[in-house]
């Protein structure tokens, strides 16, 4: 196994875990990094498989809370309301993602310049929204109205364009619709679970013929790196957002987008 492949897998796994749940677009970061590292993965199967590490990390962190909600479903209207809210928020992306999957993967995911531009534009939007004097009306994710959850789900569909960021789209949408920053980030976590599991399952099915476990060690390295770093991010993000807001992520998006455009111009 080439040493370069091991290093690339480690780097890409770290990037996946660090960026999956923050509003900077993990997809753009992983694909751009893979482009400049010269990392080849037919059908982007490596990125598909290591994403499972990030999924497991958030399930582990929220396992107790998910279990409590599941146990309360038969007797608690509030638990049933929250479960339905997450389901409604998930549906728009599930439908559009299934219908447009091939176009997204074969066209949008193969256009690095587009990702860079969207990173910059998304950073500017996030910066503007973060500075708006918005008055939150909703601060508890379990009390989000069903109509609000569905609208947040519509915002999530913007993340079909790589560089937008799934968490960034849902957080910006949530803030504009009247939530506070902490609950917006937390609802994004809960919405990530069915969305990421659905996307992972669909990607795995679509790329089943391209997946090879001959490079199992490379995949394992990326998977573990994504799991460990995502675990750290999920456990620390809510407190960070409550105290610092989203401006640091906005500036990082702009920096990465500009650096990516310069890199593409210089190196191709």
UniProtKB/TrEMBL annotation:
Membrane topology: Multi-pass membrane protein
Keyword annotations of the record: Antibiotic resistance, Cell membrane, Cell shape, Cell wall biogenesis/degradation, Hydrolase, Membrane, Peptidoglycan synthesis, Transmembrane, Transmembrane helix
Subcellular location: Cell membrane
E.C. numbers: 3.6.1.27
GO molecular function: undecaprenyl-diphosphatase activity
A Pfam family hit: BacA
UniProt feature coiled coil, ranges: none
Keyword Transmembrane helix part of the UniProt annotation: yes
Cell cycle found in the keyword field: no
Catalysis: reaction(s): di-trans,octa-cis-undecaprenyl diphosphate + H2O = di-trans,octa-cis-undecaprenyl phosphate + phosphate + H(+)
TM ranges: 43-62, 82-101, 107-129, 184-205, 217-238, 250-267
Sequence similarity: Belongs to the UppP family.
Miscellaneous: Bacitracin is thought to be involved in the inhibition of peptidoglycan synthesis by sequestering undecaprenyl diphosphate, thereby reducing the pool of lipid carrier available.
Purpose: Catalyzes the dephosphorylation of undecaprenyl diphosphate (UPP). Confers resistance to bacitracin.
Protein name: Undecaprenyl-diphosphatase
Gene: uppP
């Amino acid at each position: 196994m080439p040493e370069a492949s091991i290093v690339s897998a480690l780097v890409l796994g770290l990037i996946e875990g660090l960026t999956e749940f923050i509003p900077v677009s993990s997809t753009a970061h992983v694909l751009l990094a893979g482009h400049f590292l010269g990392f080849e993965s037919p059908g982007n199967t490596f990125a598909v498989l290591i994403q499972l590490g990030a999924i497991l990390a958030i399930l582990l962190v929220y396992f107790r809370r998910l279990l409590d909600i599941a146990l309360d479903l038969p007797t608690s209207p509030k638990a049933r309301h929250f479960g339905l809210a997450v389901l409604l928020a998930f549906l728009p992306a599930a439908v559009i993602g299934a219908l447009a999957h091939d176009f997204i993967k074969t066209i949008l995911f193969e256009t690095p310049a587009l990702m860079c531009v969207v990173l910059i534009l998304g950073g500017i939007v996030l910066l503007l929204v973060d500075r708006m004097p918005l008055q939150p009306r909703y601060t508890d994710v379990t009390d989000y109205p069903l109509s609000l959850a569905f609208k947040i789900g519509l915002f999530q569909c913007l993340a079909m364009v790589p560089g937008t960021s799934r968490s960034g789209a849902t957080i910006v949408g949530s803030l504009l619709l009247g939530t506070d920053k902490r609950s917006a980030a937390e609802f994004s976590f809960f919405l990530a679970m069915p969305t990421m599991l659905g996307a992972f399952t669909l990607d795995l099915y679509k790329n089943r013929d391209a997946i090879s476990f001959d490079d199992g060690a490379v995949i394992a390295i990326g998977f573990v790196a994504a799991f460990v770093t995502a675990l750290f991010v999920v456990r620390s993000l809510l407190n960070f957002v409550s105290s610092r807001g989203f401006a640091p992520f906005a500036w990082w998006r702009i920096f990465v987008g500009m650096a990516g455009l310069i890199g593409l111009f210089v190196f191709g």
